[in-house]
Amino acid sequence: MESSSSSSRRRSIAGSSRASSSRARASGKRLASTSARTQSTFRSTAKALCGTSRGSGGDGGDAAGGGGGAGGGVEDCTGAETVFASEVVSHVFGTGQSYGQERFPDIAFGPPKGGGCCGGSTDVVSLGNGGTVTFGFSGNLIVDGPGPDFIVFENAFETSPTTVFAELATVEVSQNGVDWIAFPCTATGAPYGSCAGWHPVLANPDTNILDPTDPEVAGGDAFDLADLELSFARYVRITDRPDLTGASGVFDLDAVAIANASCP
Fold it and tell me: What are the DSSP calls for 169-231, one per residue?
């Protein structure tokens, strides 16, 4: 026969076990809730940036607001926004190479057509020596989120396991189309730091299923707005390095993609 003290101890142990299990479930729910709130905050902030930027122009609008009106903007994405460069704000081709310019701007729109690690794509436009192009994304914004925020694709490729055929350009971003901040591109030898044009492009919707907006798999040169202490950018400007000349001195642009977009 079980004594009353043994029975009490067993009930106490069972109660403690149930309490521990309950605490573990509650802790798991809190962690899940925290993660969900973090993602929700990022999405809400991104959507707010998208809406605010479109309406910040006031009565007449400006380069950043554009929409004019009362200044409150729209709160939801319209569906017209793109995660790939889809509008040319301005461009000036430089001297020298002119490959693909007869197909510009369409050749620079949409996803990249990468040639893989060891072969450069021919779906590109040469900017020419010192040439420059400024892109928009049909109202979409690049926002500072987890990891790199956008990717610039050229047609760099590996010529050996330790050597890359690179053609460099400086990348700048702007929130209003007037004031610009550059990712510093001064290197003359590998590794090329914050220059665009030295990482092979892997994503190509015609040949693989790699996500061209994922910096982890797409290839190309990824940029993080946090490096410039910016929360968002509306425009991207790419300028061929005029100090670099010769066969590898002209930047061949494939595409520009947003990794963290206000309107995904």
Answer: EEEEEESSSSS-EEEP---SSSS-TT-BS-S-B---TTT----TT-TTTSBSEEE-GGGGT-S
